[in-house]
Amino acid sequence: MAVAVATAAALGLAGCGSDSGSGSGGDGENVSLELLVPIYGDKTKPYWEQLVKDFEAENSNIDVKLETQSWDDIYNVMTTKMQNNKPPDILELDAAGPAYATDGALYKAEEIVSPETYEDIEPAFIDSAKIDGQAYGVPTVASTRALFYNKTLFEQAGITAPPKTWDELLDASKKISALGGGVYGYGMPLGSEEAQAETSIWAYGNGASWEKDGKMTIDTPEAKEALTFMKKMIDEGATQPNPGATDRTPLLDVFIQGKIGMIEGLPPIVGQINEKAPDLDWAIAPSPTKDGEPVTLGVADYFVGFNKDEDKQESIAKFLDFFYQQDNYVKFNDNEGFIPATKSGAEAAAAKPELKTFLESLPDAKFYPATNPAWGQTSGAFKSDVGQIETKSVDEVLKSIQAKADVEG
Amino acid sequence: MRELATEPSPSTSGVLDPPKTEAGTGNAATPRKRDRKRWGLTVVGSVVALVFLAPYLIMLSGAFKSRQEILKVPPEYLPGDWKFDNFVNMWGTPETPLPDNLLSTVVISLGGTLLALLAALPAAYYTARHSFRLKLPFMLLVLITQMLQPTVLASGLFREFVSLEINDTWLAMILVNAAFNLSFAVWIMHSFFATVPKEIEEAAWLDGCSRGQSMRRIMLPLVWPGIVTAIIFTFIACWNEFAASLILLPTDTNQPLTVALTRFIGQYESAWQYVFAISIIGILPVVALFAMIEKHLVSGLTAGGVK
Amino acid sequence: MQALPWLLPALVLIVGVVIFPAGYMVYTSFRDLSRFGKDRGWAGFENYVRVFGLDPLPTVLTNTVVWTVGTVVVTVLLSLVLAQFLNKKFPGRKVLRMVIIVPWAASVVMTSTVFVYGLDPFYGIINKFLVDVGIIDEPYGFLKNATSGFLSAMAVAVFVSVPFTTFVVLAGLQTIPHDVLEAASIDGAGKVQTYWSVVFPMLRPALAVAAIINIINVFNSLPILKTMTGAIPGNDADTTTTFMFKLIQNDRQIDTASALSVVNFVVIIVVIGVYLKVVKPMREVNA
Predict the structure, then answer these.
(1) What pairing do the DSSP bridges indicate for beta strands A138-144 and A296-305?
(2) B217: domain range?
(3) Where does the source fall among the domains of life (chain A) (predicted)?
């Protein structure tokens, strides 16, 4: 090693030295916080850079080191960090974040924000990520799903109102698919990107639950009925070709291009359509369910704080309180286009017409059973297996997912 | 780059197609016939070139499209509205500090290549020229290092570099790249050294050349194609390394282009025009480097002056 | 011991940067890791038992053989032809040599990505082209089923491996002294005969190294399949390498994946060992 190091050093390639966060003296102890956040879109990183800058200006003894990662890579990066016992101090992630608590790695939710902030957060979101009655994650953004539909295609196919039930959905989809010319009725993304979401919307729409008494319940009659109907949609040509291998993001783009009649989407897509295809004539309706009973999938992302050897709890709380300050927090949600998870934020969001359908569906939203430590692998099993309903029997697919969900971790 | 365009230089244009017409069988053909045949090869060559370029032409076209147009259904081959400023704007996006990323890639690649070469050259020469008991084990050990999946090693490297406190530095990535590519460099240069008859070198010694002189004057020109191959291979591998950089370089200004690219991939939409534009920019320096040393790769033996 | 100073720099790099993480990989394969990566102690051979109990393993192993052998054989054959072609003199040869390096110079992830983009049935330009020239009637989802996705990925693997292999062969062609070829010609050997009896044997050392590197790289290749067939459900388009990453990413079985990566490593060592025994590219090493 010595040779190599010396050679590289002699070449002046020693890179950037470590930050000189220590020894600046002044007001009390200096603390360095590592912050790891996922990238939602092109406004994410500038937002955090500015927030960190503003925060450091107010708290000169706290040095926040920002790391951003794409959603594709962040799990991989976190796995390595955990394996080597080097988690960040603060992490923003989907429900996989609070799940780290099962390994005893996290501060409790009320330890990483002030009581005032904690009070301001919608209890439903906090509850969605409790483990054995204890919250570890503080929700940052929330979303529900709703049906985006193309009014022009509806008109051409002679459909007057958005479908409320599965049968209406199948009927409307087939009518639109029949228009031909590369146009398809319903966009069903069962590719690995987010197959668990599409599947959950359908299964929840038939009263299925993925968890009961701490056990994952995948192979259930409700789920079977839902998947069977999905298969029917595919078989009868109501969907785009090859739904089993179609990822969500590219398919949403096809909807934006006006080639798909209906697709399940979430709040950030609204801004995207407005920007990319201002001429598209579209609207949002609640997700269709089997009998028209209102229910849809809700998803939230969370902040968690890692309890490492040194005590940084106070600094973490300071930073998160800063983030949840009305101005900072509203700006974050404006940027990313999600539904705020705080009461005060929701009031601000209520003023926006484009969020109306989503806000209304919030009370009926059902979340992933993300607090169950087996949810991660179950969700993974959906991603890798559920698309097979295109070619295999529903029974076989559900059994294989159930088997993967049951593996002890 | 002008060199690229000028076709067969005067000094070589008279030479017939080596190696098969080397013995003078082409003498019977009239110059015109010969010319026609050579241009025929050019036509075949153009088709081959088009095949190899096709995906990158798609990339190039995409790099000039607008964000909306890039995902148009059905697609257009060429941009309707040429966004030349994609290539300007990408340097100043909020997603990633691209000038820093380019610098990182350059430094890591040059450092990694140089280090790999410095370590591999003596080993390749010695193993090709001498027999010793541990030679085979050594060559196998070198080879085995190449067989490990880089992504699998990233976790252990992270642990090692954190404890050495060189995590998140260029130095870490230079070491990693040099080590990952050492094997190829040793083996390819070894195989070239091995094809040079010992007698040539020995004759040089008899002529009064020192070992160093014979290395410089006789061996180097003979194995130059091998060295150039090793340089190109190592440089390109360093240039495009992703798996270890992703884990070892959390600070954005230290990250190479490959990692920077992922910053344009959002959760619900991606800035493909920048991804493509940066990919194009990433290819050019490698091709330029190749243009610079390609003639050494080709000239090899003949230029070495060994008759 | 005389050898040591010559070999030391290489040894230092290998031991310092490769042996440690490799050892760590082996160590991890004997540990019990939680779904989140937390080490919970010794696991003995449990992870290995689990690897060999994985249902998709036979499919995945077969795929791995097809993937590696198919890609490398096609690559080597194409490269031999292409190198011979590039060794001729014709107007534009230099430009062609520049062009051929492009797939090698580009990052494999990006090349795969552009193929994913181009082959998309909705906005893919390659699909549009195939329709426009009449090869297919309507856009086809090349990457939407395991068989055609796997074959497309193999084609891309060949595409990105050919440039490197071609240049190694080309460099090998340069080391063949002209007088050897002349002598062969004077002997009255035909073109094909000259190639197989004179040129090819002299290419062997370079070709052998190129083949080994290709076998290893193709075997370990993650980005091409991950990018191109990652959306396809099931394991019908997986090799052991991509399967390993699905175990981590989807199944959260970090420890099982570690054991599989050790198995993977052993398999490639055996493959290369057999290759060395059969092809004997190390004749010079042993001589």
Answers:
(1) antiparallel
(2) 95-304
(3) Bacteria
- Spatial separation of the C-alpha atoms in residues B175 and B170, rounded to whole Å: 9
Amino acid letter for position B265 = I
Whether residue B162 lies within 8 A of chain A, CB to CB, comes out as: yes
Complex ipTM, two decimals? 0.89
Structural domain boundaries in chain A: 31-143+299-362, 146-286+374-405
Return d(Cα C224, Cα C232) in angstroms, integer.
Answer: 13
- CA gap B154, C60 in Å, rounded: 24
Angle between the C20-29 and B150-164 helix axes, to the nearest 10 degrees? 110
Nearest to A7 among B71, B118, B268 (CB): B118
Per-residue pLDDT of chain B (307 residues; tens, 9 = 90+): 333 333 333 333 332 333 333 334 444 556 677 777 888 899 999 999 999 999 999 999 999 999 888 888 889 999 999 999 999 999 998 889 999 999 999 999 999 999 999 999 999 989 988 888 888 899 889 988 888 988 889 889 998 999 999 989 999 999 999 999 998 899 888 888 887 777 777 777 777 777 777 777 777 777 888 888 889 889 999 999 998 998 899 889 999 999 998 888 877 778 899 999 999 999 999 999 888 887 776 554 343 333 3
**Interface check C233 vs A, CB under 8 A:** yes
Give the C-alpha separation, C104 to C84, whole Å: 19
The answer to whether B142 and B182 are in contact (CB under 8 A) is yes
Beta-carbon contacts of B111 under 8 Å, excluding residues fewer than 6 positions away, are A8, A11, A13, B170, B171, B174, B177, B178
Specify whether B174 is located in the same domain as B280.
yes
The answer to whether residue B106 is domain-embedded is yes
Residue among C14, C170, C175 whose CB faces B145 most closely? C14
CA A348/CA B68 separation, integer angstroms = 30
CA distance C178 to C47: 57
DSSP label at residue A322 = H
Indicate if B52 and B114 belong to the same structural domain.
Answer: no
- Tell me the domains of chain C and their CATH numbers: 56-215 (1.10.3720.10)
Whether B94 and chain A come into contact, CB under 8 Å, resolves to: yes
Asked if A31-143+299-362 and A146-286+374-405 have one fold, the answer is yes
- Do residue C250 and residue A190 have CB atoms under 8 angstroms apart? no
Q: Which of B52, B130, B169, B247 to mutate to test binding with chain C, by most C CBs within 10 Å of its CB?
A: B52
Is the four-CA dihedral B84, B89, B277, B46 of positive or negative sign? positive
Calculate the alpha carbon distances from B134 to A159, B139, C7, C41 in Å: 80, 9, 11, 37
DSSP letter assigned to residue C32: E
C-alpha distance from residue B298 to each of A278, B1, B244, B294, C167 (Å): 56, 18, 33, 6, 9
Q: From CA A260, how far away is CA A262, in angstroms rounded?
A: 6
Number of structural domains found in chain B: 2
Rg (CA), chain C: 23
The residue of chain C with its CA nearest to that of B187 is C209
Chain B: give the shortest CA distance to residue C7, in Å. Answer: 5
Q: How many angstroms separate the CA atoms of B56 and C99, rounded?
A: 10
Instruction: Tell me, yes or no, whether B99 and B45 share the same domain.
Output: no
- Containing C81, the helix (H) or strand (E) segment is helix C57-86
Gyration radius of chain A's alpha carbons: 23
Domain A146-286+374-405 in CATH 3.40.50.300: no
- Is residue C152 within 8 angstroms of chain A, CB to CB? no
The answer to whether the bond into B74 is cis (omega within 30° of 0) is yes
Q: Could you say which of B28, B55, B84 is where a domain stops?
A: B84
Do C262 and C25 form a contact (C-beta atoms < 8 A)?
A: yes
Helix then strand then coil, in percent of chain C rounded to 5, is 75, 0, 25
From CA A277, how far away is CA B72, in angstroms rounded?
10
Q: Measure the CA–CA gap between B281 and C191, rounded to whole angstroms.
A: 43
